[in-house]
Amino acid sequence: MNFKNTFLTLGAVLTLSSCQNTMDVSVSLDNWTAGDSVYARLVRVTETEIIALDSVFIKDGKAELTAELDQAQMLFVQIDGLQPPVMLYGWKESVEVTGDAAAMPFRGRAKGSPLTDSLSAFMDHQETFQQQAGQMEQEYGRSMQSGDVATAEALMGRFQEMYEGNMAFMTRFAANNGPLGAFVANRYLFDEELSSLEKILESSEDSFQGAPDVIALKERIEKLKKVAIGQKLTDLTQADPAGQPVSLSSIRGKYILVDFWASWCRPCRAQNPELVALYKQYNSKGLEVIGVSFDETAEAWKGAIAEDGLTWKHMSDLRGWNNSAAELYSIRSIPQNIVLDGKGTIVLRNVSVKDLTAFLAKNLR
Question: Exposure pattern of 141-173 as b/e (b: 16+ CB <10 Å)?
């Protein structure tokens, strides 16, 4: 789910749920000086709107919020004048939100239910990771500016280890936290493969099968099944740089690399020289490449094609992350790729250039 700034906006229509499971949220704020005419809201965020489940005045820094929920889900306690909102995850529990109203930014805490406590622990872990990554990025920048390449390369190695460790942590967390795990998978595990996501889904008890995050994960899994190795790829038609329609099914080759990228994607651009070299080596032997761009402007897209020397075919609908390929193939991050054989069957997914080179060396002689 892309939260952007939606939960910071207060132009939502008040909508009250009607079911049988009550969630109670008590708010208790230190250093409250704003008087008794400030609202606290318990809200649910969808792709298109904020839904207020309850809204009350805060009196002497305290408020009681209640919502009737039919399933466990992500909620936010939103307090006028204090940002950011407080995240909590639950269903039919009692949760307490505390914080210092004088602190900016506001660092409210939610606790009291198993799912909300797990969410808080997860967010603490992610905050620590982000702080460490930020410090390492600053050290890397200073090393590069001073010409200390050895230190910069060592920092990159350490960061890669730390990044992989954090991804492993998130995957383990998702597999052991039911509907909250489904939320983490959908929100953070963009490149997770089908088998891992299916294990995460299995961790949700039958009572959580109707939870919004579990439903979203089920839908994601069904889409990924359609682009699993051994499946025929669903066709895609978009415009080429000249504005003419081109379809994946029109590309002919012994093997076809479908490369999902964008001009603004630094990792995509960084691997383009390797792809150019690979294309030059194997195009005459039967490799074709089609680039599917997640750009929004034709100028940036065409400029990157020319600058990077990408001489293969290209397509885009210039809708950025709303590219129809994202929905069709469940693409949540780039670069990604799919490799097809001459019959349009998927033989590889998200393969590195190094591993693709080894595959082609074996299969294109």
Answer: eebeeeeeeeebeebeeebeeeeeebeeebbeb
